[in-house]
Amino acid sequence: MAAVEIRQKRALTLIALPMVLLALSCVYPVFFTINAALKTRKGFVLDRFGLASDPTLANFAQAWNQSRLSEYFTNSVVVTIGAVLTLLVVSSLAGYALAVLRFRGAKIVFTIILVSLMIPVQVVLVPFYRTMIALDLVNSRAGLVIAYTAFFLPFSVYLMTAFYARLPRELFEAAQIDGAGLVQVWWHIMLPMGKPALITLGILNTLYCWNDVLISLLVLQDERTLMVGIAALRGEYTTNVPLLAAGIVLAAAPIVIIYVIFQRQIVSGIAVGAVKG
Amino acid sequence: MSASTSPVLPRAPRRRLLGDDPGRLGLLFVVPALALVIVFRIVPLIWGFGTSLTDYDGMSAARFVGIANYAALTRDPVFLDSIVNMLILLATLPVWIGLPMLLAILIHQGVPGGKLFRAVYFFPAVLSSVIVGAIFNMLLRYDGSFNAMLKALGFSAVDWLGNSSTALFSLIAVQLWATFGMSLLIFLAGLSTVPSDMLEAAKLDGAGLFGTWWHIVIPSIRPIIEFAAVVTTIGMLTSMFGLIYVLTAGGPGTSTTLPEFLIWLEQGRMNRPGYASAISMVLFALMAGLAFIQIRIMSRNASL
What we know:
The structure holds two protein chains of two kinds. Chain A is mainly alpha-helical. In chain A, about 80% of the residues lie in helices and about 0% in strands. The model of chain A has no long low-confidence stretch (mean pLDDT about 85). By secondary structure, chain B is mainly α. Chain B has a domain at about 90-255: MetI-like (MetI-like fold, Orthogonal Bundle). Residues about 1-20 of chain B have low confidence and may be disordered. At the A-B interface, helix 1, helix 4, helix 5, helix 6 and helix 7 of A face helix 1, helix 5, helix 6, helix 7 and helix 8 of B.
């Protein structure tokens, strides 16, 4: 029995080697990009892989100011915050109604919302765009907020409904007996009690909205969000790798920071869809 | 409705402005979610299906043409190329499932540094497809750094993105790099539900590492494997746009054009929405079956 255990230990250690190589491959492209962003154009051409010998922040300044990334950054921040807050309010209201109030037809509504999961934006690209034009929502940040809410909503409603369904009903009934109206119950009980799920959804939806490119390309045409800006920068500066790299670092930084801080919530949020939890 | 009962009687349920009728208010609370989903997804789906049966060109009045657009699709080499590319992509599914599953089992069984591995492997998955595409465009271009490294090591350079025989392979590899951490997390979550006494018992019986995996671990996470396969396949059909847009723009030729990217190209041309909608409907038909399975898993878990 001990021999088996030792044998397993040894096998696991041996197998860790390719795992380390894979881990390096996950990190190296990002390291390469940061390193390239710190080099001058000439410095990069002379030595692509070496550490930046004379690190400069000039590329960041140029990307931020001349390439208008500061403007795109503002657009992304405004739209992401707007969409995430809207998603949280709409999905917690819906989850409350579906799981706790259980009105007639709740099951049908829940099914309709889940079914819309199988309608990704590509499937409705043409009519969705024409709907946006008809409602005068194209080229407006509010329009993009609404579009994000519509497309990222079903998972949020699903999660809030599942979360609220597991809360003890006594909580809700006690509040009702105390004479609180249903709106107050939502505000004073459902929102605070739903905090763990709302935090998870807040983080995941922030990733989705910040990282989106397709919906943004379609809806915001005069202005740009950061990801559309980076895609354009890629086309314009194919030969100036350090400038492009600086833009990439600026655009990815907020998400990487969020990942480092909220790793636990992100991980559990992804697991929740997979396992009954 | 708003009249309150006498304040002399404490604890008596008071009626509020919006009423206490859970039925009516419940419906009201769900209206924003329902309206958004219906206006921006369900109605456009039906509208798109209608458009796909017409010869609408964006200007003159639409004429009903039946399945003419769908018939035209079967003769459109670009569309057929996109389907072939999609089938090649789908054929790589075992790698997309096997790699993260293997890694998850190893981490679960206590490879040294497992927590760190998990964090590092998942890291690319938080980066957007545009960021990933832009990074790998710098690396994989013909004059890019990967070729510079190959040449330094004595190999010859390959035009990874510009050669139609390697472009699709490169696209698939980059997307796998960017998403395998996501599946890894799903598998780890599933493995945490495998009872550890079963593993102990297997150890006592002297079962080897691989025997334990094959006979105990893998059968007990079968539902998770199914779930991961469905989610990954849906991702293959609908989450490649950003990467294609930045990494290859569908080229060279049509070698990295997938149906979802073709829809975008057609939408951009604006001159035959009927035809573009027909491609959308084909993608929807593929999605619907998969999503149906996913929804069944999800509504089972929500236990409504």
